[in-house]
Predict the 3D structure of the following.
Amino acid sequence: MTANKQVLLASRPQGAVTPENFRIAEAPMPAPGEGEVLVRNEWLSLDPYMRGRMNDVKSYAPSVAIGAVMVGQTVGEVVESRHAGFKKGDKVLTGTGWQLYGVARGKELTLIDASRVPASYYLGILGMPGITAWFGLFEVGKPQAGETVVVSAASGAVGSVVGQLAKNEGCRVVGIAGGRRKCDYVVEELGFDACVDYKAGKLHEDLRAACPKGIDVDFENVGGEVLDTVLRSMNPFLRIVVCGLIAEYDAKEPYGYKMLRSVLVNRIRMQGMIVFDWKDRYGYKMLRSVLVNRIRMQGMIVFDWKDRYGEALADLGARVAAGRLRYKESVVEGLESAPAGFMALLTGGNFGKQLVKLA
Ligand SMILES: NC(=O)c1ccc[n+]([C@@H]2O[C@H](COP(=O)([O-])OP(=O)(O)OC[C@H]3O[C@@H](n4cnc5c(N)ncnc54)[C@H](OP(=O)(O)O)[C@@H]3O)[C@@H](O)[C@H]2O)c1
């Protein structure tokens, strides 16, 4: 067998991620101990949360140490097993990170059925992003038929699923995405009612036009100016699902929110640790809107529902099998391309769920 290859965290980013933050290294082929399995990784998932793990700050999950393998989920094939539950040739979901081969204990692996859907789907629509969309929308957003649901990063792994699920609930669904090409895809392929291009420079006007009855649910994937603008257009008792703040992950300076005043004025309910973090960190100006509009704003982390993932996966799997959920992947080839793929993901260079094809 050849040696293993890994992407290590070389340094912590100061602002935007750069290629120098990573180092590609060869390593000895790992050998599985008793109860362990050696996996040859075939697909690596690139996800925005990895940006947070590159920082040395307290969060809901530990940071990656300098010199350690970058954290991440993969799907791959078992090449050697010393665990009764797995055999050579099994396809598995792993957390072995940015490397060609990884060893894991049996309880850290999930067997996947790649006979009916591509194995890579377990990193996207039938994996963590899909589950996030499902619980975030149904458990936090709770959309009702006839309501208007706004979804940011609408063409992406989470946003594309959220919008399609909300549409199926009978909602008016409006996406926000960067560029005409992504917006056209969101409307024409995913079936959203409208999609606003935030790069066109008139987000507030365009959002108002796309949401003539105001906004009832905001599924927030972006933060910064996008969230601030949504806060100007919401209806009383709006629910904001704070799923992600990707516009802020690379920022050296916190975004100066202007609309958070709305939270106060609209009697918005702010809930969740992430939201409290913001309060200390950012100069939100539209918080009043939360009061005036009685907005309920809730942070969410997909792990909160880890005991119920099966529920989401059963429903998402049925919809995928029936052809009722459209899905797009954005693939870069080879482990060496992982840093570039990740930097693209953080700046909107991806179009769909970002993956690295390893084998
Ligand atoms: N809470 C949780 O448990 C959880 C779990 C999974 C994901 N998330 C969050 O969900 C969000 C989406 O994740 P994903 O995996 O589905 O990624 P994704 O949407 O597939 O890709 C990220 C997208 O974010 C948009 N973006 C990047 N920088 C931006 C900026 N400065 N302003 C506006 N949009 C920007 C880009 O789309 P455009 O080109 O359209 O701008 C990019 O394509 C992220 O914020 C992520 O952290 C949260």
User: Anything to note?
Assistant: Residues 220 and 242 are 5 Å apart (CA to CA).
